[in-house]
Design brief:
By secondary structure, the chain is of the alpha+beta class. It has 14 helices and 14 strands. Helix 10 packs antiparallel against helix 11. It starts with 8 loop residues before the first strand and ends in an 18-residue tail after the last helix.
């Protein structure tokens, strides 16, 4: 698969291979600053003049990148007297540079959309920071040094590896993922299982959930995005089930305010103690009994804005499974994890969207569950 394609993604099962990939990617990446008013947009679709004039594109831009963009976003950006195909990941940040927004923009014809963008871009003398990668412009951040900080993925990952070696001997790389939006990786921590999960496992055993307790393994996840989708963050996971359970963020360093890779690495020193806090919140849910668990699950899905179709399917499955047994908030939280499995089964493979949904569901740990235990049926 060509990396220029908007649908490109890559999975890794060897950490060194993932690091090597991002080292090579950094060498092929351009970060360019330009005045916003110097940028202009042109339609790139069937019948457009650009599609018939490939020589106006920057050197190295392939026919594959041009045709793929024509079939996706359908726009090209002119920078330094040459055109670059515009990746879908760059649209929001470019619109931000033009100080415009709204769902109506995507409903415009490409020619009209390009005209609106150009009129608005021409009004602003601020600087833009362009990310040019895999033959396309992938982002158009603010060029103010305080507004966006470049945090290369390979350097973040190497810093995290150093801290894992210090704190979690025996850790194991689980998997890694990258696409044009986001990079993520996860590790299991078998050497710290008893230390981190011991009390929680005893609670589950006491409630007759030994089968669940025996499968769980602590883990951590890293993710970062240089297209503006996410900060550089590390969060707590529970592994061992059909899909990792995200149980809360522990660290986030934003790509702004002149942040450096060193800030991320130094922050890791105090981060791992927060894993215990996340487990403690999970234990708390085992002590909250619900009178109306289906209504509670529905209200929480609505509160967290999880995808409606998958949520309703998970709620229906939960309602069929609970029978007459007493149900805790922990049971509902575990049932919420089915939403991720349903999304993946239904073909939602973009990890950026899945990660966002996982993070939203993890917020349920901090909610006041009794406020959602409603006798009246909740509509979604």
């Amino acid at each position: 698969m060509l990396q220029c394609l908007d649908s490109y993604s890559e999975k890794f099962y060897d950490f060194d291979e993932m690091i090597d990939y991002h080292v090579c990617q950094k060498m092929d990446t351009q970060w360019e600053r330009a005045e916003v008013k110097s940028l202009s947009v042109a339609p790139l679709e069937t019948g457009s003049s650009l599609l018939c004039s490939p020589l106006v594109f920057a050197p190295g831009i392939s026919d594959a990148a041009i045709s793929d963009t024509a079939n996706n976003l359908g726009l090209a950006l002119k920078y330094d007297d040459s055109y670059y195909p515009l990746r879908a990941t760059a649209f929001k940040s470019l619109a931000d540079r033009a100080k415009i927004s709204g769902s109506s923009l995507h409903k415009l014809k490409k020619q009209d959309l390009a005209s609106v963008l150009n009129k608005c871009l021409a009004l602003h003398g601020a600087m833009a920071l362009l990310l040019i990668r895999d033959e396309k412009v992938s982002a158009a951040h603010s060029g103010d040094i305080k507004d966006y900080s470049i945090l290369p993925a390979d350097e973040l990952l190497n810093g995290l590896r150093m801290k894992l070696n210090e704190r979690f001997p025996g850790y194991a790389f689980d998997s890694g993922y990258t696409d044009h939006c986001i990079t993520s990786a996860s590790w299991s921590l078998p050497g710290q299982r008893d230390e981190m999960l011991g009390t929680y496992q005893k609670v589950l055993d006491a409630q007759g959930k030994s089968a669940l307790a025996s499968k769980l393994m602590p883990g951590i996840r890293f993710c970062s995005s240089d297209t503006g989708l996410a900060s550089a963050k590390v969060s707590a996971l529970l592994l061992g089930l059909q899909h990792p359970i995200h149980i809360g963020g522990m660290l986030a360093v934003e790509h702004r305010n002149q942040s450096k890779v060193e800030d991320f690495i130094n922050s890791l020193d105090g981060m791992f103690a927060q894993f215990g806090d996340a487990i403690a919140m999970l234990e708390r849910l085992t002590k909250i009994y619900l009178h109306n668990p289906v209504n509670a699950m529905t209200a929480i899905c609505k509160k967290l804005s999880v995808p409606k179709k998958a949520a309703l399917e998970a709620i229906a499955m939960f309602e069929c499974s609970i029978g007459s047994e007493a149900v805790t908030a922990h049971d509902v939280f575990m049932a919420l994890q089915e939403i991720i499995f349903i999304l993946r089964t239904d073909g939602e493979t973009a990890d950026g969207k899945l990660l966002t949904t996982e993070e939203n569901i993890a917020r349920a740990l901090t909610l006041r569950w009794n406020d959602f235990d409603l006798a009246k049926q909740v509509s979604y």
